[in-house]
Amino acid sequence: MTTTNASAAPTELLLIRHGETAWNAERRLQGHLDIPLNDEGERQAALLAGALAGEPLDLIIASDLRRAHQTAQAVADRRGLTVAIDPALRERGYGGFEGLLYSEIEERFPREFAAWQARDVDAQLPPGRNVGESFRSFFDRATGAILALAADNPGKTIALVAHGGVLECAYRLARGLPLETPRDFKVYNASINRFRFDPADRSLVLDSWGEVDHLRPAVLDELP
């Protein structure tokens, strides 16, 4: 008789960006600021829940920021599941950039803005209400959290509801993209992005990116 080693089974991951917020719509940087979904974001979350209603799903884990938790809760309510919270899935901390439009950031912090736009992954962001993270330290945090959650749940299908930056980090890890390269792929609100974690080599494999057919009439890219 063959014995299956459950700990060697791959983990299926659905990485989901939160629904739209008012700040997404006006291109205002959120970072760690706790902004709720707007009406469109709530609509997107409901459509997302419907799209996932028939899929196998063992766990739902969300960032502790409201926009992610609200999105996850819509999915959980439809499935009769509870939402677990992991603060390590938070968006990047942007320090003094948070709460500002791109144009305002460039005006107030020209040197830091230039380094950010030039993809200086070790650049320190100006202090603000929340701690600013370099992109490298954020990448290590986000991917470390994703890999740890996947390793802790072999053979399961889990939904991780997080933020645009977190999904970008997962995409870069799975595709082997250098952190310094520009982002040339879309990260849509309330999109479904499918990954597989192989415990044998702790690799993250991208199976499907940017599923948004469940959303109409529009989806938004950009800004965490």
From TrEMBL:
<dbReference type="GO" id="GO:0016791">
    <property type="term" value="F:phosphatase activity"/>
</dbReference>
<dbReference type="Pfam" id="PF00300">
    <property type="entry name" value="His_Phos_1"/>
</dbReference>
<feature type="active site" description="Tele-phosphohistidine intermediate">
    <location>
        <position position="18"/>
    </location>
</feature>
<feature type="active site" description="Proton donor/acceptor">
    <location>
        <position position="91"/>
    </location>
</feature>
<feature type="binding site">
    <location>
        <begin position="17"/>
        <end position="24"/>
    </location>
    <ligand>
        <name>substrate</name>
    </ligand>
</feature>
<dbReference type="GO" id="GO:0005737">
    <property type="term" value="C:cytoplasm"/>
</dbReference>
<keyword id="KW-0324">Glycolysis</keyword>
<dbReference type="InterPro" id="IPR013078">
    <property type="entry name" value="His_Pase_superF_clade-1"/>
</dbReference>
<dbReference type="InterPro" id="IPR029033">
    <property type="entry name" value="His_PPase_superfam"/>
</dbReference>
<dbReference type="InterPro" id="IPR001345">
    <property type="entry name" value="PG/BPGM_mutase_AS"/>
</dbReference>
<feature type="binding site">
    <location>
        <begin position="91"/>
        <end position="94"/>
    </location>
    <ligand>
        <name>substrate</name>
    </ligand>
</feature>
<dbReference type="InterPro" id="IPR050275">
    <property type="entry name" value="PGM_Phosphatase"/>
</dbReference>
<keyword id="KW-0413">Isomerase</keyword>
<protein>
    <submittedName>
        <fullName>Histidine phosphatase family protein</fullName>
    </submittedName>
</protein>
<feature type="binding site">
    <location>
        <position position="67"/>
    </location>
    <ligand>
        <name>substrate</name>
    </ligand>
</feature>
